[in-house]
Design a protein that fits this description.
This protein has 5 helices and 2 strands; from the N terminus they run H-E-H-H-E-H-H. The chain is mainly alpha-helical. The longest helix is centred in the last third of the chain and has 20 residues.
């Protein structure tokens, strides 16, 4: 069980590096806020071990709003998303 979780987090971190690496010198808008919010968990874990950012340093208000909405949605989905599937019987 624990190894499955670690492998999943590792895969998401690699995907975060490939698809959602945040450039500290670039200004990001609302669309990037959605994308960065979806990869929040992966980029947050990456920030523990590398110098990767989990949120842009230069951003618009739209980025900030979208980032927080999708970050919270991602965290809640990560914590509670798989619970209902375990009880389902076919």
């Amino acid at each position: 069980m624990i190894s499955r979780i670690l492998i999943t987090i590792g895969v998401y971190c690699v995907l975060g590096k490939l698809l959602c690496d945040i450039d500290p010198g670039k200004e990001y808008t609302w669309y990037s806020g959605i994308w960065h919010g979806l990869f929040f968990v992966a980029n947050f874990v990456r920030s523990w071990f590398t110098d990767a950012l989990y949120k842009a340093e230069i951003y618009t208000t739209g980025y900030n709003v979208c980032y927080w909405i999708f970050s919270i949605w991602t965290v809640l989905g990560s914590l509670f998303g798989g619970v209902g599937n375990a009880r389902r019987r076919y």
